[in-house]
From TrEMBL:
It catalyses: ATP + protein L-histidine = ADP + protein N-phospho-L-histidine. Pfam families: HATPase_c, HisKA. Keywords: Kinase, Membrane, Phosphoprotein, Transferase, Transmembrane, Transmembrane helix, Two-component regulatory system. Its main location: membrane. Its EC number is 2.7.13.3. GO terms for cellular component: plasma membrane. This is histidine kinase. The keyword Manganese does not apply. InterPro entries: HATPase_C_sf (IPR036890), HATPase_dom (IPR003594), His_kinase_dom (IPR005467), HisK_dim/P_dom (IPR003661), HisK_dim/P_sf (IPR036097), Sig_transdc_His_kin-like_C (IPR004358), TCS_sensor_his_kinase (IPR050428). Residues 231-446 form the Histidine kinase domain. It comes from the Bacteria. CDD domains: HATPase, HisKA. It comes from Lactococcus fujiensis JCM 16395. The chain crosses the membrane at residues 21-43, 189-211.
Length: 458
């Protein structure tokens, strides 16, 4: 049991399934991480957009900011000498200002916009912020620790300006408190990350499902291939064993003549012919698995009459009754070799599974754009369980009887391939009162364009 489990775990299918799962899982991981980062970035930029725009508007009016300092105006006061044509922004309780001289030294302690705690805020900003001339014109973020150990979050803009009273060049930093926006951002980020994590964990199950789903056709083909190799090996092993025994018997009698050993030689030749037929059919299947093309040509109704004449001779030789009905009027376009092979396979199958008093009937007609073929016999019939598998390669309803009659279990598989190539349909039914009936419909106006459809499970 342990060896079986080890073999299963080391099989190519299981290994490939693990690789598929890993590929899907990594793909989902990259998607969720990228989506999370994009959402957070978009939300962050949108959240601070109004605040940054207000800072930029205030930065366009340095005279207004200087007037706040020089005239000690209140938080909501407006200067008397503002430019009427410019938007000056909204300076409110959340704003603070720091002013530097041309050397970058803090030279003023202007009035903060809040009446309570303003000095504490300015003191914290003066300790935390340094003038960076490279940051002029850009908006930055900063976090300041207050006396209680809590964080104050600010967005600020640094700009170069001229003192309206002295004419000296200086620098102004305008700050906006964004504590509420920061808290809102943190909550939203937590919600987004939590949601994405949940869906990321769900992607594990989705990856397992997709890996299994994508491998189903591969596993089906793998099982079919394995079964095909096992059946082919089994079919070849039997005639090889018979040949070996016959040849060993010939070596045991080195003085015997050909006439004396004619029975062994005849049996050996029969097995050689059987192996040749088997290998020819296997080669035919392999070629048609790669591609099966329909080469249609204009065909007269007499084409089928000539085939039925040959079948009549074979049936008479086997003391069986054969009847045919050709209801085709006018010419049709078909692949003569493939249709003839299809009819021969079905006729040969009926011959094998009917007794000496067997009756075989083939009816052929054209219905619309379809070529309809019915092949019926009065043999023993086929059980419902066997009907599900008779088109599988090497499958035989009565293996002992079929082997005795030379059957390889490949004929109906070839017939099914031809029908599929014609984009048609083949079904097997019970014939009344006894026997089996094959019903075939071949589409004449739309044969198979893509040969890969042959590989589909039917």
């Amino acid at each position: 049991m342990k060896k079986l489990i080890t073999k299963i775990k080391s099989s190519a299918i299981v290994k490939n399934d693990g690789k598929n799962f890993l590929h899907f899982f990594l793909a989902f991981t990259v998607i969720f991480v990228a989506l999370t980062l994009i959402i957070i970035q978009v939300m962050r930029s949108g959240l601070f957009k109004a605040t940054d725009q207000n800072l930029e508007d205030l930065g366009q009016n340095p005279e207004y900011l200087w007037s706040l300092v020089l005239h000690q105006q209140s938080n909501s006061g407006q200067p008397n000498n503002t430019n009427q044509g410019n938007r000056i922004g909204d300076y409110g309780p959340a704003n603070s200002i720091l002013i530097y001289d041309e050397n970058g030294k803090l030279v003023s302690n202007p009035t903060n916009s809040s009446s309570d705690g303003g000095d504490q805020i300015l003191e914290g900003l003066e300790k935390a912020v340094k003038l960076d001339r490279k940051a002029i014109g850009s908006i930055r973020s900063i976090t300041v620790k207050n006396t209680l150990g809590a964080d104050w979050n600010y967005r600020y803009l640094t700009m170069q300006s001229v003192n309206v009273s002295t004419g000296q060049i200086g620098y102004i930093q305008i700050f906006t408190n964004v504590d509420q926006l920061k808290e809102s951002l943190q909550r939203n980020v937590f919600i987004i990350i939590t949601t994405m994590t949940i869906f990321w964990l769900l992607s594990i199950l989705i990856s397992l499902y997709l890996a299994n789903w994508t491998l189903q056709p591969v596993m089906l083909a793998y099982e079919k291939q394995k079964e095909f190799v096992e059946n082919a090996s089994h079919e070849l092993r039997t005639p090889l064993a018979i040949l070996q025994n016959r040849l060993e018997l010939l070596f045991q009698k080195p003085t015997a003549t050909i006439i004396d050993e004619s029975e062994n030689i005849s049996a050996s030749l029969a097995e050689v012919r059987n192996m040749r037929l088997l290998t020819s059919n296997l080669l035919n299947l392999a070629r048609r698995d790669s591609s099966l093309k329909i080469n249609s040509e204009e065909t007269q109704p007499e084409f089928f009459d000539s085939i039925f004449t040959s079948y009549q001779m074979l049936a008479d030789d086997a003391d069986k009754e054969f009847s045919s009905s050709n209801k085709i009027e006018g010419n049709i376009n078909i692949d003569q070799s493939l249709v003839k092979q299809l009819l021969t396979i079905l006729f040969d199958n009926a011959m094998k599974y009917t007794n000496d008093d067997g009756k075989i009937a083939i009816d052929i007609s054209k219905s619309g754009n379809f070529l309809a073929i019915n092949v019926a016999d009065n043999g023993e019939g086929i059980s419902d369980e066997d009907k599900k598998r008779i088109f599988d390669r090497f499958y035989r309803v009565d293996k002992a009887r079929t082997r005795q009659k030379g059957g390889l279990g490949l004929g109906l598989s070839l017939a099914k391939q031809i029908v599929v190539a014609y984009n048609g349909k083949i079904t097997v039914e019970d014939n009344q009162p006894q026997g089996t009936r094959f019903v075939i419909r071949l589409r004449l106006d739309n044969p198979l364009v893509n040969p890969a459809r042959i590989f589909q499970k039917h």
